[in-house]
């Protein structure tokens, strides 16, 4: 199965001024595409060649295949967490779970940003739903690897142009 770069759920200029079209041309069009290309090259002639992206992330051993598959999944999930019409305080069950864990959405945002800033390198910070139904913030690769249900993520994008600074979570929380 040839993996392809999934289409963005919005136009490349739709998130300006938070993320510019230039950022998407680089981070999505080149960076994310490179993970897709690398994955396809690495899985040729292997048992992974016929597997879905999620199956590869769940079953590949540590190394190149897993790393590239996880980054394809992470980036795809990240783009789908963003919305030009997003933002604001969540409601319903998500708001209840956030308030139970952190006391308020503002306190959650502070905890998420603190965790993301402490994440070394170009890592990922995730809001996840744990098996017991509670929420947590974790820094890691792909959440599917340890069977967490991802809620949304922020990537530390040191190489991408960000109007809000070097980290994505500050606007993710205002744009999701």
Whole-number count of domains:
2
Low-confidence stretches: 154-176
Oligomer, anyone?
A: single chain
Largest sheet: 3 strands, antiparallel
Estimate the mean pLDDT confidence.
80
In CATH, the topology of the largest domain is named: minor pseudopilin epsh fold
For the biggest β-sheet, the strand order reads 2-1-3
**CA-to-CA gap between the ends?**
31 Å
Structural class based on helices, strands and sheet pairing: mainly alpha
What is the percent of helical residues? Answer: 40-55%
Explain what this protein looks like in three dimensions.
Helix 2 crosses helix 3. The protein has two domains: 21-81, Fe,Mn superoxide dismutase (SOD) domain (Helix Hairpins); 92-175, Iron/manganese superoxide dismutase, C-terminal domain (minor pseudopilin epsh fold, 3-Layer(bab) Sandwich). 45% of the residues lie in helices and 11% in strands. The model is unreliable at 154-176 (pLDDT under 50). It contains six helices and three strands, in the order H-H-H-H-H-E-E-E-H. The chain has a three-stranded antiparallel beta sheet with strand order 2-1-3. The chain has 176 residues and is mainly alpha-helical.
